[in-house]
Structure prediction request, 322 residues.
Amino acid sequence: MDFILIPGRVAYSLKSIEDKLVSCIWDSGGIDTLDFSLYTVNQVINLNEGSFSDIGGLRSNISIAYKTIIENAIGGKGDDTIIGNSANNELLGGDGNDTINGGLGNDHLYGGMGNDILYGDIGNDYLYGGIGDDILHGGMGNDILHGSMGNDYLYGNKGNDKLFGGDGDDTLVDYYGNNTFIGGKGNDLLFSISKAGRNELQGGEGNDIFYCGLGTNLLYGEQGNDTFNFLCYKGAKSYNLIFDFNTNEDKIIFVDQNYKKIDISKMKRVEQLSGNENEIVLHNDIHTNKTTITISTANNDHHSTIFIKLEGILSYNDLLDI
Prediction:
């Protein structure tokens, strides 16, 4: 076994796939990279101190000494697993269906070609899926997730996140914080099920479906026939603005906590909410060409209010026809 001193450079950059490495790496400082991009076999690359990696078809043949920090890694053409450490890592999967976990730190993860799974974990991370049907998990922190090409799943999790679907039919989900959703091209599904916060959702091209939870939601359907679903349940309160609603193409649907459609024909039409259960107010302003809808699905004990304001004149019959 070799004991290799790394003074801040590319730790390994293979000249041939015939190279078989059995080494322990020790680092004296600088920004270091493990480059195993020439290999075509499945590999496990672990950057944590005291860990072992499976490289070039061998098992546990590369180790990292204790008190050694290796920042970056590049996978090969197989289905690789890359595990980051507490540093700010830059991890590239390359070709193949890779799984990459950033760990602690503010990391940059790139899936490359293939159907990849990326976990930002803890820190303010940047995740880029690349070509393929990828799954991206931001984890804790203020993360940026790019699906790029393919039908991707993006989960922001905790923090103030930005989710970009890119090309393909993508699913964008976030539950916490003040978040931005941009669907891009394709028929996208945007879930902003935040418990509070201020969220901006842009559908982009295609027939997109929106699910809006609590807090403030700024909604842009953009091109296509879009559907806006609003969660209504006991204690729910939200303020929603739809900036480009098309009364001929777009739809508004109210759903319960199980995402089942609520039959608003059974609700009482009133001029102002009284605090009673199952009331709806629809107001048209012909001078500004705007419509406001306010709905309450619970009584005073568990009062809920869902407020929607949109461009255009929408009638009560329009809602019943959906």
